Amino acid sequence: MTDTSSLPTTRAFPTARPAGCPFDPAEDYARFRTEESLTRVSCPAGIDAYLLSSYDEVRALLNDPRLSSRAAVSTHVVLDRDLDAPTVPGSILHLDGPAHARLRRMLTPEFTVKRMQALREYVRGLIDERIDAILAKGGPVDLYQEFALPIPSLVICELLGVPYADRDRFQAQSSILVSTDAAPELMAATSQEVQQYIAGLVMTKMAEPADDLLSRLIQRGNESETPLTLEELIVLGLSLLVAGHETTANMIGLSTLALLRNPEQLAALREDPSLAESAVEEMLRYLSIVQFGLLRNATEDIEFGDETIRAGEWLVAALASGNRDESVFPNAEKIDLRRNPTTHLAFGFGAHQCIGQQLARVELQEVFSRLYQRIPTLRLAVPFEEITFKDNALAYGVRGLPVTWDA
């Protein structure tokens, strides 16, 4: 591991949200944005790093090719890998340069705006089916379990060619993989189980190609100069399966709760479903569910204002802080579903910006334009104070969302 003991540690990494304000990031970020250009922090996993918290700094960090993503999202929070070990083949989150670009080129055709728009009718049908089932069951129901989780799970199963009967298994497994406090033994065992499952799925697609993402990815690789190996396909499949439903499910649940706590904004969306597109962008900005930011490593010395970031030192791009930067988003602490669309940072930025962002947008837009209109009296079935949150997960959200409505 790179020795960063010489990096002065002045502050603890901000993790605690304000008391009574579960939608807001740690209060320290506002002070960091105004008082310090670079903040030296000691991260939960024992890594010392520079924390960048303003909108412009975060964008610059994520767009700088001198900063490697080899530790990707979470290693400053959960030290779950040897930082000096070679990057696993197929790990698109951790690779840089030509190796990353190769995988990105393979995947990009599957996530174009045109292809995602073609899914819209299918997504809308799934949403209406789930709403029908909820209404038939009657309240109260856990909207997270009965609606927020199934929608993206069904969609990613359809895309990858995963049997939907297996969804309960991979939902439970992915919740462990994105946890920050799961026992190392459980994390390792779960990772191995998921990889074995994906390996079987990939080998089935190799032998019997179908009309799905994995089959097309295999074919596209075979037609290239450097075909994708089995190991690469397993890792890519795992990344897509976990990321493809975990983040969107959390956004659906957390957005619904935030809108229920802001009834004027919810009423505006209910009365005018055409607001769905801007509403999705605003809620992505406001909630920033990748709550601990993105970790990067300097591959060479970098001048940053009056400071020099040395090769080998770590930096964290605080997405949630950048998305609350008042200089870019006036009244950033407020939800404004009519806010002019300024590029937010919820999907990251630069070469590693989330490849599935257009899919997430389609899913969220359809939820926002259907759920609150079809169940106009939707409300919490328990006091707000009883809702529990995923403070220990890389993707922030609610653990459950009991709701009811007028029959």
Written description of the protein model:
- By secondary structure, this protein is α+β, with helices and mostly antiparallel strands.
- It has one domain (11-404): Cytochrome p450, CATH 1.10.630.
- It is 46% helix and 9% strand.
- The chain has helices at residues 28-35, 55-62, 97-107, 113-118, 120-137, 143-148, 150-160, 167-177, 184-207, 213-222, 230-260, 263-271, 276-287, 319-322, 357-374, and strands at residues 11-12, 39-42, 48-52, 67-68, 141-142, 294-298, 302-304, 307-309, 314-317, 379-380, 402-404.
- Strands 1-2-3-9-6-4 form a six-stranded mixed sheet, covered by helices on one side. A three-stranded antiparallel sheet has the order 5-11-10. Strands 7-8 form a two-stranded antiparallel sheet.
- Helix 8 crosses helix 11 (230-260) and helix 11 (230-260) runs parallel beside helix 15 (357-374).
- The longest helix is centred in the middle third of the chain and has 31 residues, at 230-260.
Main attributes?
single chain; 407 residues; alpha+beta; Cytochrome p450; three-stranded antiparallel β-sheet; 46% helix; disordered N terminus
